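To whoever is on call:

I kicked off a structure prediction for a single chain this morning and the downstream step that reads the tokens threw a length-mismatch warning. I double-checked the sequence; it's 309 residues and nothing unusual in it as far as I can see. Pasting both halves so you can look.
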Amino acid sequence: MRPSNFPNGFGGGLVVQNMPILNSYPGRVFWVDSTGQSTGAGTFASPFNTLAQAVARCTANRGDVICIKPGHAETISAAAGLVLDKAGVDIIGLGSGSNRPTFTFASAVGADMDVDAANVSMSNILFVAGVDALTGPIDVNAADFAMIGCETRDVTASYQTVDWIVADANADRMLILDAIHRGATDAGADTWITVAGADDVTIVPRFVDGNFAVACIENTAAASNFTVYGRGDHPAIMRNRNSGDVIVTVHASTTGTQGPNIYARIADNAANITEAFVGAAMVFHQPISIANSAGEVGMQTNITASTDA
């Protein structure tokens, strides 16, 4: 992925495999880079230096796109330190590995990014804990939020984020796709994702590892069509290092689907295979493989199987 050679290409555009993908987009394209200025024009040559500045220039539901250059870094130091309040904005991070745009939550346990408008998407962003006991740095309060190919990370064992992604009942149709979470090995976290009674939530992790007292993924209030699974080409690898031994837990009245293509590891070598995935009103699809000790092959979940009765 590379920027176009504007002015010989299209203004503010983006090229993938030599194919322009934003030249016919209905909205505007804004650029963000740490080397930019608050007085920048938001173009590739004169970018803004914060994402908030680009969001402020967007118009709701116009189809605006914000491109964040490789190596961009920001620190969010307070509650609502970054607010995504323009509906229908797509935020695209460029670069790979540690060169991806990086947002660090620091200074206060309540430091967070609020998603307060519908139809916002974020792609290829790295989110990092810069302080212990963060209480919900990614706070989703609006419908149709999508987080695609992003990573959340507790950078040290002493920084245990309590809940990384917190979604309230307004977060209907939230999509978390191809996500990676690298959590602290020490105790202190409750979940990677906790969701209240939002409907039609879909979570498709790629890799999740942490010490979660509650579960990797939690739903706390009755909801419909809550779905957690892994892709066939990229199964969901999830590990809980906590003795609670739960990977996914949902409210007893929540409907939806867990599996297929989930491969889990839990902490204790004990009678805990059935309890690793909880959902009294849900259905489960194999493979859901669970290993509870090193050097062993995981076994399929032994939740009660359907019968042709």
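Update from on-call: the warning came from a stale cache, not from the record. Cleared it. Sanity check on the structure: DSSP finds one helix and 29 strands in the chain.
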